[in-house]
């Protein structure tokens, strides 16, 4: 009986995801999942999944280490502003990633695209 309940709970959890985007980055995959809670309010679940291989040859084992962040609508603007400031700081101290993508000096948030070979970093999150 308990096993049946676990399966039902798992299926219900799958239904709450209304949008998902996977971003592959080397050994890591970042998942951006838009979910609904019981009150039909949407929130963003950000998951980092990192592949961990231990041992060698036939004795090797593959595991995935996962970390999650839940971001709620009322915090989007503050989170995005903080993220932008952190990225700008890193770029000022160490230069842009791969010399191609870096943050704009403007203060606007929520722009529509990621620009390469320019001075802009744009993010668009619609809910």
Structure description:
There is one protein chain. This protein has 127 residues and is an alpha+beta fold. The protein has a domain at 2-72: Nuclear Transport Factor 2, Chain: A, CATH 3.10.450.700. The protein has 2 helices and 4 strands; from the N terminus they run H-E-E-E-E-H. It has helices at residues 2-15, 76-94, and strands spanning 17-25, 28-36, 42-54, 61-72. It has a 4-stranded antiparallel sheet with strand order 1-2-3-4, with helices on one face. A hairpin with a 6-residue loop joins strand 3 (42-54) and strand 4 (61-72). The protein starts with a helix and ends in a 33-residue tail after the last helix. Mean pLDDT is 77; it is low at 1-14 and 105-119.
Class derived from helix and strand content: alpha+beta
The dominant shape is flat
**How many strand segments?**
4
CATH domain topology of the domain at 2-72: Nuclear Transport Factor 2, Chain: A
CATH level-1 class of the domain at 2-72: Alpha Beta
User: What count of helical segments does DSSP give?
Assistant: 2
**Rg measurement, Å:** 19 Å
Could you list the spans in which at least 5 consecutive residues all have pLDDT below 50? 1-14, 105-119
Give the H and E element order.
HEEEEH
Largest sheet: 4 strands, antiparallel
The chain-level mean pLDDT equals 77
| CATH architecture name of the domain at 2-72 | Roll
Distance between the termini: 38 Å
Instruction: Give the neighbour order of strands across the main sheet.
Output: 1-2-3-4
Task: Determine the fraction of residues in helical runs and give it as a percent range.
Answer: 25-40%
